[in-house]
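Folded chain entry
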Amino acid sequence: MKTSFNSAIIAFVLTATTIFSANAEDKEVKKVTGFDSGIYASRDGKLKINIDKYNNEATAILLRDANGNVIYRETAGRSDKKLRREIDVNQLKSGNYIIEISSKGEKQTKVLQLTEKTTQRAVTVN
């Protein structure tokens, strides 16, 4: 009886160990990125780009039109840890633009859509 009890405990321990090992391998390890970025438009027609760097590599910002032409380009140095830029997009034509931020093989891409502001006409009769 002691032998079967010990065998059952050993089998339980081996099974539990195998299950926990399998679950540990299935979990995805979150990769640490070299930078984070935030991009938003202000009411005055300016594009605000915020970059926080976690690596010691150069980081590039590109703004391209729909044809791939570079409208704006800037490279932040290796020692820069925070980058805050404001790009005036008031003079750009309506359409789609692509913002690319890249550093050491990592790239974040966002699509910027510029449209014309429409005005509404109000009619009153007195």
Observations:
- The beta strands are 35-41, 46-53, 59-65, 70-76, 82-88, 95-103, 106-114.
